[in-house]
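EI: anyone free to look at a 205-residue chain?
SC: sure, send it
EI:
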Amino acid sequence: MRPAMWFGGGVALAAAAYSPFMRRRYLTWGATAEEVDAELPGDDLLPDADMLSTRATTIVAPPSAVWPWLVQMGSGRGGAYTYDWIENLFGLGMHSADTILPQFQDLAVGDVLPMGNDGPGMRVEICDPPRTLVFRSEDGQWVWIFSLSEQHGGTRLVSRNRIAENGASIGRRLADRLILEPGSLVMERKMLIGIRDRAESLTAS
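SC: here you go
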């Protein structure tokens, strides 16, 4: 009976995690309904995404103080402000900086940032300081949009991911729903909070 109970409990937990309510929470953490529905520059780079997330945070600092932390992100650059040890399990070489790095501030359209040794690089498609920064993977499967807007003297930072699953098996798609989506919330929430805390700390000082 015990294996059956464990299996049944696992199925019930998976069903709850994949419920529309929980999935929406995974994919829209911190974002308002208006932000989720809004069209952002870069959406047209992958209009028929299979996976779409829109997450956001409010930062008590102007967009001009948030922008430098965004443009220096990347492997071998300023890191991703999330759990470096998890990123580095996948060979991404992330080391999150706690200061603004002048040598990485001149990001421009066409620049390609590496994603570890094996992953496709991320090409800068839109660089409109201090409002919009958009990356697209070289294989065209992932578009990552950062949108900054001024709000009551601070910044509303929105991060949107658009991902295609072209040719993925049913098993892979299921794994993406049950593992990748909630896992991406853990990592991206930490990233947004990391950017927020760094920008607010530097502005306050």
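EI: Confidence is low (pLDDT under 50) at residues 4-15.
SC: 👍
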